[in-house]
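Deliverable D4.2, example record:
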Amino acid sequence: MSDDEARNMIRFPPKPSVVRKAVLPKPSAVRKAVSKVADLKQALKPEKQRTKTPEECQLELDQKEHEKAIKKMRRKHEKELKKARKKGQPRRSIIKVIPN
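Output generated by the structure prediction step:
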């Protein structure tokens, strides 16, 4: 390479054959990716316990009391059935209807 060619290279650098443009993602794709990341982060967080209203608490307590009362009635009924069987009464005559 002579001095003249070197000077020309410095003054006029060779043009690249392909000029690459920066390819930016579409805004919709960016939004989708951001929402996916947010969903994943939300899924990783431990779920907070929702506080109950006083009405819900009272309803739950009433439900538990109702279930306890039914269990108590069933136990009492079973005892009566056992006593009746010991006495020899037919089973059909002593069956009561128990609410569910």
